[in-house]
Amino acid sequence: MSEPKAPTPAPGDTYKGWLFKWTNYIKGYQRRWFVLSNGLLSYYRTQAEMGHTCRGTINLATANIAVEDSCNFVISNGGTQTYHLKASSEVERQRWITALELAKAKAFRMQAESDDSGDDSTSPGGGQGSGSRNSEVQSTLRTLGSKVEDLSTCNDLIAKHGSALQRSLSELEGVRLGGETSEKIRQVTERATLFRITSNAMINACRDFLALAQAHSKRWQKALQAEREQRVRLEETLEQLAKQHNHLERAFRGATVLPSSKSNPAIDSKGPVPVKGDVSDEDEENEFFDACEDVQEFITVPADPKYHRRSGSNVSGISSELGMDDGTTSLDEQSLGSNPESPQSREVVPVRKRRSRIPDKPNYSLNLWSIMKNCIGKELSKIPMPVNFNEPLSMLQRLSEDLEYYELLDRGAKCQSSLEQMCYVAAFTVSSYSTTVHRTGKPFNPLLGETFELDRGQESGYRSLCEQVSHHPPAAAHHAISERGWTLRQEIALASKFRGKYLSIMPLGSIHCIFEKSNNHYTWKKVTTTVHNIIVGKLWIDQSGEIDVVNHRTGDRCHLKFAPYSYFSRDVARKVTGVVTDKDGKAHYVLSGTWDEKMECSRVMQSSRGGENGTDGRQKTVYQTLKAKELWRKTPLPEGAENMYYFSTLALTLNEPEEGVAPTDSRRRPDQRLMEQGRWEEANAEKQRLEEKQRTVRREREREANHNGSPAEEVKEPADKAETLHGSHPPAYSSGHQDNYKPMWFERQVDPMTGEPTHIYRGGYWEAKEQGNWDSCPDIF
Known about the structure:
It contains 17 helices and 27 strands. With about 775 residues, it is an alpha+beta fold.
């Protein structure tokens, strides 16, 4: 089990092995891998963790080592750190105590020497770099000196015991013994003397080496400093040459393309077309984009200046060069001209004033461990959670928050190019996660048959409807349609697991976006959401994974990559990168940004394979791009959002009471309303009542189905898709089958585009609302 060790640890050597460390009263002693090196005692869960994850370290220079019994001992540094350790045997414990005492003495000696020489570690006129290099050399010399002192200690011991041996042998010589015995004693004496002479010679040689190293230390420092300065000069020279080359290349192209006169280039072009920028803008357009190290599989660099140096009369020429339709507006013009909030784009009509605040979140204490200890390994939807962990919104309302930045789809609907439209759809996909960065509260699980409508036709031009179509497994269907030419629909089922330290939420199902004008049909799936520090520490949320947005009509594709957060990464946190390609795999746009702040896109002018390999051994693609244009930026949270569950402006209005909504609407849910008002104890009681009522209704429905022999809801499938459903594309989950429930406003079909079974809006809700006819709605509250 434990690593083989020497019987007595040599002074200064690294010492490793298994020990049992006390953790807590529940787990008791746990086996850990300990490493003693350079006066520090560190431990890991396994030997494999030594390269990346240290669980704890204690400095022996100021530590106290105490022995409790035959196998137990304690290491403490004065109160902040205390390790209660247990060895497998008394011999093993003694080996560790010996090694720790030697390491403690050595660490104390080195600390004292470091304090004495602290003022001399850097020169008065030197910079931080030279002081660091001098300190490194001095540290090396101190290490060598320490080794020599260790050898000197060993020599003293050898001399002491050797002298005692010689005295004993001398006494034996005076005893009258046989000739053969006297001869052997004489040989032993000679060998002991030779051994002592050899040890002294070894110590002297080490002392000479240390003196020589000290004598040449200054020369080493000067040589090292000269080499580093020369390298810096070479790097600066290379950078200067690259800038000069780029300047000469731009000057050459400018001399051959632009007229020699100093007149405005727009005057020489045909027609009074305004110029987007003059020559002075060249430096701004040639901004250099740093290569990404961890996440991206590509590198972006500024495109050739010939692509920037265009007058207004050549805009259509650029479009034709890129293989786009004539008359296509550029992406930056599109983002300005199609802003639905501009006064020219829509008439000013009186709209309802929505609320901007909700009651502040009360500060109630809760024993988290008493709830969580019985939940490990269970499905999240089957865990009876109090409202203390919730936020006063249902999952249906959270799903409707995907429309927070609906303007991106409005702009995409006006695009004439499917590739530009793909950029807006991809930005919309990323924007749906921006509301989750601080939202650590769990939304209410919707009751079966619960609905939520979001009618923003007057303000924003769209209507949205969600319905809980299945309870086991939980699944919600969503349908939104806009008068500005797009439709969004999705069915999302959540697979979630509590792993003790974190909670993983894996959304299942596809999202569809259809644009009426172009008939472009886009689909994508959601990434994994992870909630960290469930038991101890501050909760925080991360999004990670990859998304493929596919245009099924044209074959265009956008591959988005959400980088998982890492403490050791030098990259931007919550980073998202992506590339928009056509059906032939040719890249047209590069996307970059973060899922909690903004997204930008850059048009690709040229691509090539890079000379350096990526982290996975493959060559990175180098894209020459124009200057990045901002597609989306997160709207700041309202004032005081930290006291209102970090709700956005839209989220604050979702649970606002409205007249005329269906009796199954989430706004009418009593436990959710009580929680919003701060009456949490009443909300918990009401929540238990609703859940028990739902269980009773489900048992009755199952009993009735078994009595009548009626099958569960059947899947309507086209004749050409029947084989697909039962063949190569099995459903990811059997929505509706376990509940024997037929939704009110959605029906289960085989999606004609993806071949997956899903719930699609059947119609009739908004007509029922206009008529005020809710007689067919179930009583779920």
